[in-house]
Amino acid sequence: MQKRSVLVLAFLAPAILPGLACGRSRPPAAPAEQVFRFRLHEDPPTVDPALASDQFSEAVILNVNRGLVELDPQTLEVRPAVAASWTISPDGRTYTFQLRDGAVFHNGRKVAADDVGYSFMRLLKQETNSPRRFLLEPIEGAREFTDGKSASIDGLLTPDERTVVLRLTKPFAPFLSQLTMANAAILPREVYDDPQKAYLRAPSGCGPFRFSRWEQANFIELVAFDGYYGGRPALDRVVIRMIENATSALQEYLAGGLDSLDETPEETDAAMQARLGGEIHRYPFIGTGYIGFNMALAPFKGNAALRQALNYAVDKEYLWGVLLPGNQPANGIIPPGIPGHDPALPGYPHDEAKARSLMARAGYPAGKGLQPIALWVNTGEDNRKIAEQVQSDLKKIGVTIIVREVDWAAYISGVSGTQDKPGQAQMFRFGWYLDYPDADAILRPLLHSSNWGPAGNFGRYRNAEVDALIDAALDTADAERRADLYRRAERIAVMEDPPWIFLSYYQSKTLYKPYVKGVVLSPLGEFRLPLERLKIERGAT
Amino acid sequence: MCLQSSLHRAATSLCYSPPVTPVTSPAPRSVFPSRPRLSLTLGAFLVGVFFLCALFAPLFTDWFGYDPYEQVAPRTITPPTPPGRDNLLGTDGLGRDVLSRLIHGARISLEVGIVAEVIALILGTALGAFAGYAGGRTDAFLMRCTDLVFAFPGPLLALAIIAAVPEPESAPILRHLPHPSVGIVFLVLGCLGWAPIARLVRAEFLRLRELEFAQAAQALGASGARLVLRHLLPGALRPLIVVGTLGVGGNILMEAWLSFLGVGARPPLPSWGTMVTEGQSYFLARPWVCIAPGLAIVLVVLGFNLLGDGISDRLGPRRGGAII
User: What rounded mean pLDDT belongs to chain B?
Assistant: First the structure.
């Protein structure tokens, strides 16, 4: 980027210089190009909607692709996207979607009902190997299709060009919310049937931005799509820059190379806080941070007392109150703002004495007999700090932690493992952002045994009572009773058989330049900012 | 013209071409004509200070009560806390005393620097001696091996090898070391550092082998091993000491670089390189966290370089010193 603009300047110099020489009589400038530049820490692991399961990937996909429905980033309500409208049958089993007339793929072809069928089958197909197959599994016949027992999906019908009917095996309350996720994007068959898999580097869809360029470890460029059904976005281009180091990223933001930044300066840096005060935005964010235990490996396998001991040993109040101020210490799993959040849950306040006695009950008095435990974190200054703080806290009860810092792609594979083989990481720092505002969106992917392994339950947690309560909640229509079932599931998972060290409920902190207009501070996080609503207004200068 | 025996060396020293030309070039001496020993003294002083730090690091903890791993900053203030009476160099991002981490870090740095250099010296001397003494095909083969090592960019190769052993804690040999993540660094640096030493020793051997004293020893029936160990190797010691001293500084710098990139010493070990990485996010607001370890790296490397230079001056033929 930088290089190119320098080059352009060099070419333009002879043309501009005479203009400058004659003083104020400059010709009226052409409207400046609208470019929005934001930062990701690293390259997204994938830009294929079927394979994405992390927010970096979604940050790209949600701007290039669209599904049948989408989530309003502000109100968190489901609203129309490729589908203009939908109806749900009284028994809650049949969903009928009417597609929009104006939805067009980036290659100019109109989006038809067949494309929905193709995209959903692609997500469910065994060969696609999607970690998010479960999103569509409520559809009748989906499992049979995945297992190869049937060539079509019974519950997926396209009676005409503009109508899609989905029939579920049983009523499933969060189904519509699940369809808002990036994985359920509608894809053009002609691009995604490519045996060369060119779409892995150049994805396509019907979203507001076309994917233009990807320079690995440098930037991704998106350009406005003129044929977007919601109207061409005001931004001409979006540049997503990969800058791992927080200090470099902040310097780049200060120098004007970024228009927004997801990491704000240290709270201790008074000068910087004063300088950027107005540009720092803080807002709640529906997510939970934790350190997961790998319950398929020793020493956590079948040892709940050890997991409880570690929970008591970590001083969360210090971690979030002093060391990294901002987040709220977590007492459980379901973050505030989500039906089912339980403020009365005791959780694990810092208590070294209790931790010690639990260590003895776990069979490792003062850590005796316990091998050093590997704690995996993905690279990042805050992550390292969290890891070192946890390491230091656990040392006090005799637990030796070896911190392993790896890049995101290696981290994900080391943590998630494969379907049959658990990941190598014994402990891992993780955060979960709810894809839609429902307790099911955190309890099911992370703790239900049906998502065992790479699907989300990386720690390979299996608790029959928790499973049963999560399942029961899905079949319950009454909101209050549903929330109560989630509270009960959470209480068991937190107090009796903890799968994690519960660290924090997230808060977002994002920097936006004052000239970026139309920013939505979404509880879904800064990467879910609807870029098609943004505008750059640099004012008179 | 340089085939004089050691007996004639003093008289004909002007025509003697020194074995390690780069470090004995006359240029630096003309800058400090009256202070030839300055670099030696300063180098020895700097290295000595860091040696003492490394040696007495545990005592320092015992006497003053500062543990490099203990979070000493008050639990109510977001660290790093500024330098003060309790913490002369302040605390780092986790509230640990920077000075005591620095002092303990000297252990890691010197350990890596010296152990790696010893490994490189042993390997390089053995292979170089063998090549220089045996000559012929053996020599050609071994020298191609050194070419091979030279062909790779050393730092990147080290990075690649260390990255290929993601868990030194469970690797066969390293497991038994006190700090496996540091162990792999000095093993790799040692194993990559032998090539220049082998070349140097070989060149010395080729030269010494032809000198009269060596030929005389051979004529008197000295065995190959005796000739190498008693006659040739002592002759090659002088350049080895200089190269070895300079090498320690190089290794320390390399360890810091690797730790800075996050592949060297693992947290919470107080490696200087790691400390610089951890400090860089506070560089503008709390500079001491980053500058203190950075300065330590600069000083210790400078110390070893000055020491190496100084020794080479002292041992240079024109100074008249000799250690043979």
Answer: 84
Buried-exposed string B227-259: b where 16+ CB fall within 10 A, e elsewhere:
bbeebbbebbbbbbbbbbbbbbbbbbbbbbbbb
How many structural domains is chain B composed of?
Answer: 1
B78 to A267: CB separation less than 8 angstroms, yes or no: yes
Does residue A34 sit within a domain?
no
Phi, psi (rounded to 5 degrees) for A12 = -80, -20
C-beta of residue A446 within 8 angstroms of C-beta of residue A293: no
Q: Which of A125-134, A337-346, A461-470 reaches the highest mean pLDDT?
A: A461-470
Across the range B279-302, mean pLDDT stands at 91
Contact B262 A405 (CB under 8 A): yes
Full residue range of the structural domain in which residue A353 is found: 285-507
Q: Which residues of A touch B284 (CB under 8 A)?
A: 269, 271-272
Tens-digit pLDDT profile for residues A475-520: 887 778 989 999 999 999 999 999 999 999 998 889 999 999 999 9
Residue B155 carries which DSSP code? H
Contact call for B78 and A381, based on CB within 8 A: no
Alpha-carbon span A427 to A386, nearest angstrom: 13
Query: What is the value of ipTM here, to two decimals?
Result: 0.78
Say if A402 is an interface residue toward chain B (CB within 8 Å).
Answer: yes
What token pair was written down for A443?
Answer: 């309890």
Give the single-character DSSP code of A1: -
Chosen from B176, B284, B288 to mutate, greatest number of chain A CBs within 10 A: B284
- Mutate one of A42, A244, A247, A390 to test the B interface: name it (highest B CB count within 10 A): A247
Mean pLDDT, chain A, rounded, equals 89
| Identity of the residue numbered A69 | V
- Note whether residue B264 is domain-resident: yes
Q: Structural domain tally of chain A?
A: 2
Of A394-398, B147-151, B259-263, the least confident:
B259-263
A303 with A448, same domain?
yes
Q: Which domain holds residue B310?
A: 47-72+82-319
Residue B5 lies in a domain: no
Q: Is residue B18 part of a domain?
A: no
Residues in B 245-284 with any Cβ partner in A closer than 8 A: 262, 266-268, 278, 280-284
Residue A405, chain B, CB below 8 Å: the answer is yes
pLDDT tens profile B73-108: 888 888 888 999 888 999 998 999 999 999 999 999
DSSP state of A538: -
> What's the CATH code of the domain at B289?
1.10.3720.10
Tell which of A190, A224, A253 closes a domain: A190
B321 touches chain A (CB under 8 A): no
Asked if B285 lies within 8 A of A325 by C-beta distance, the reply is: no
Give the minimum alpha-carbon distance from A19 to chain B in angstroms, rounded to a whole number: 40
The minimal CB distance from A268 to the residues B69, B75, B285 is found for B285
pLDDT band of B60, cuts 50, 70, 90: confident
Closest listed residue to residue A476, CA positions, set A489, A463, A491 = A489
Closest residue in B to A373 (Cα–Cα): B169
Question: Which residue bears the tokens 């007392």?
Answer: A305
